[in-house]
Amino acid sequence: MIDSNAVIGLDLRVLWDERDTLEPWLAPLVPLLDARVIRRIVSEVVPFADAARANQILTGRQNVGKVLLVPEQS
């Protein structure tokens, strides 16, 4: 028997203006995130000053998970 694998993603930004529609779907995820039953996957945390490097990571498809740009601490 051949194993079947899939990678599935969903970009909810296209539904940002429909927040009232999304809330009933997203609300059940909050406790799961809090309990670490499901996790956000962060591939890289890049300082804002290195935004070009973050772009290279994304365009070079070097990430598995999110690439976070963080502002400098003052």
Strands, helices and their partners?
Layout: H1 19-26, H2 29-34, E1 42-47, H3 51-59, E2 66-70
* Helix-and-strand structural type: alpha+beta
Total domains? 1
Beta-strand portion reads 5-15%
Write down how many β-strands occur, each being a DSSP E stretch of 2 or more residues: 2
Taking strands numbered 1, 2, ... along the chain, how are they ordered across the largest sheet?
A: 1-2
Count of individual helical segments: 3
Contiguous uncertain segments of 5+ residues: none
Report the C-alpha radius of gyration, rounded: 16 Å
Helix content: 25-40%
Termini, distance in Å? Answer: 57 Å
What pattern of helices and strands is seen along the backbone?
A: HHEHE
Please state the average pLDDT score. 87
General shape: extended
Described by strand count, sense and barrel closure, the largest sheet is: 2 strands, parallel
Protein name: Zinc-binding dehydrogenase
Organism: Amycolatopsis pithecellobii
How would you describe the overall organization of this protein?
This protein is α+β, with helices and mostly antiparallel strands and 74 residues long. The protein has one domain. It contains three helices and two strands. It has a two-stranded parallel ribbon. Strand 1, helix 3 (51-59) and strand 2 form a beta-alpha-beta unit. The longest helix is centred in the last third of the chain and has 9 residues, at 51-59. The model has no long low-confidence stretch (mean pLDDT 87). This is Zinc-binding dehydrogenase. It comes from Amycolatopsis pithecellobii.
